[in-house]
Automatic annotation (TrEMBL), chain A:
This is Ring-1,2-phenylacetyl-CoA epoxidase subunit PaaB. It comes from the Bacteria. Gene3D superfamilies: Phenylacetic acid degradation B (3.10.20.520). The lineage of its organism: Bacteria, Bacillati, Actinomycetota, Actinomycetes, Pseudonocardiales. InterPro entries: PaaB, PaaB_sf. It comes from Tamaricihabitans halophyticus.
UniProtKB/TrEMBL annotation, chain B:
It comes from the Bacteria. One of its GO terms (cellular component) is cytosol. SUPFAM superfamilies: Ferritin-like (SSF47240). It comes from Tamaricihabitans halophyticus. InterPro entries: Aromatic_CoA_ox/epox, Ferritin-like, Ferritin-like_SF, PaaA_PaaC, PaaC. This is Ring-1,2-phenylacetyl-CoA epoxidase subunit PaaC. GO terms for biological process: phenylacetate catabolic process. PANTHER family: 1,2-PHENYLACETYL-COA EPOXIDASE, SUBUNIT C, PHENYLACETIC ACID DEGRADATION PROTEIN PAA. Pfam families: PaaA_PaaC (PF05138). Gene3D superfamilies: 1.20.1260.10.
Length: 104, 303
């Protein structure tokens, strides 16, 4: 097995964790559906196909090493998200959405 | 699906229509409906094709898939990783699906109207027409990878040619199976390369696995008289013609895994009779005992 691009040791006890995103149909967004273990990126795509699209759920799959996702931490919740709670003028609630526009 | 298609024609001008249809279900992640592989296919038998011979041929292809699927099911709870366990189960279910369609077609072709269950559960060992390759138990994960590569490459070459068969049902089954088998072959090739070009231990096991399977490969390319007769009518494929494609695929996968093509002698038949004639290894008896036991103990049971 070749050493991966992260410069980590090529010998590991377990396979790294990947997060899986599936697009249900053309035009929709990829949605996070779960995670899996795989030895490399290509194996992760195959495993994602086997685990998450076996009931006709998707037309496209993204996988990404879980270690590569940068996330907010619960400790930062107030400085990050609380300030938007009381800004009613940021919500475009004053006009009607046409019937023909879904997913808004 | 057809209702959605109809509604989108009436709203052809609306660019958002494709997004609005279906997928209103908030639980879309549980999956959507499935397609009947034989929907819209003419199931009447072609006039000039001998029904008995076509049934025999469907049993051959169906039994290959049924027995292979059984061996793959034995990996449930035994695979090295959960992800691979699901992958192997998926492959097994693909093959079981092919077997069901082919056995059902056999009942139609021979005029008896017998069901897929009849052929799976109430035939004896000598009536099974599968190649002997699918009977051998898998001894380790390298063994499984080698089996899937050999079986998948051969069956893909075979069913790829059958997509143009003159029996429309056989052609439709082949059309569905080709997509499945392409994935099986890809999955297997990935593991054969990974193990062959992996550690010293994985490489040793991969080489040993290929050596164990190789004696059963030669039989795959010797057609039964029924196959060859149907091939001249454009209904079947003479397996002798598959060897070139099989060898090319195998050579490219094995060289990527720094492996060489094995050279062991083929297992012998008896007086020219092999799996296709109903002559099997002793391993088939064990498979059938497990496969048929319940159905034979409770012949009136439904599930």
């Amino acid at each position: 097995m070749t050493q991966d691009s992260q410069g980590e040791s090529p010998v590991r006890a377990g396979w790294p964790l990947y997060e899986v995103f599936v697009r249900g149909k053309r035009g929709l967004n990829h949605v996070h559906v779960g995670s899996l273990h795989a030895a490399d990126d290509q194996m992760a795509v195959r495993h994602a196909r086997d685990l998450y699209t076996r009931r006709n759920e998707g037309v496209s799959i993204w996988v990404v090493r879980a270690a590569h996702i940068v996330a907010t931490s619960p400790d930062e919740r107030d400085p990050f998200f609380a300030p938007s709670g009381d800004k009613v003028y940021r919500h475009p609630t004053f006009y009607a959405i046409p019937d023909g526009v879904p997913h808004m | 699906m057809s209702t959605h298609r109809a509604s989108s024609t009436t709203n052809a001008g609306n660019a958002y229509q494709a997004l609005a249809e279906a997928h209103d279900d908030a639980r879309w992640a549980f999956g959507t409906g499935f397609d009947d592989p034989l929907s819209g296919v003419d199931t009447t038998l072609p006039d000039d094709v001998p029904g008995g011979k076509l049934a025999e041929y469907c049993l051959m292809l169906g039994d290959d898939a049924l027995i292979a699927a059984h061996r793959l099911q034995e990996w449930c709870t035994n695979a090295p990783e959960l992800e691979d366990e699901v992958a192997i189960a998926n492959i097994s279910l693909d093959l079981l699906g092919q077997a069901r369609l082919l056995l059902a077609r056999a009942g139609r072709a021979d005029g008896t109207g017998r069901s897929e269950d009849h052929y799976a559960y109430f035939r004896d060992e000598h009536e099974f027409r599968n190649v002997r390759l699918v009977e051998r138990p898998h001894t380790d994960f390298a063994d499984l990878a080698a089996f899937l590569l050999l079986f998948g490459s051969w069956r893909l070459a075979l069913l790829g040619r059958l997509t143009g068969a003159r029996d429309p049902v056989l052609a439709a089954i082949a059309g569905k199976a080709v997509k499945e088998l392409s994935y099986h072959r890809e999955y297997a090739a990935g593991w054969v390369v990974r193990l062959g070009d992996g550690t010293e231990l994985s490489r040793r096991r991969m080489i040993a696995a290929l050596d164990r399977w190789w004696p059963f490969v030669d039989e795959l390319f010797h057609g039964h008289p029924a196959e060859i007769q149907l091939a001249t009518l454009g209904v079947a494929v003479d397996p002798a013609y598959l060897r070139g494609e099989f060898d090319t695929v195998l050579a490219s996968v094995l060289s990527a895994g720094r492996l060489s093509v094995p050279d062991g002698a083929p297992v012998a038949g008896v007086a020219g009779r092999t799996g296709r004639h109903g002559l099997h290894t002793e391993a088939l008896g064990g498979i059938l005992t497990e496969l048929q036991g319940l159905a034979r103990a409770h012949p009136e049971a439904t599930w």
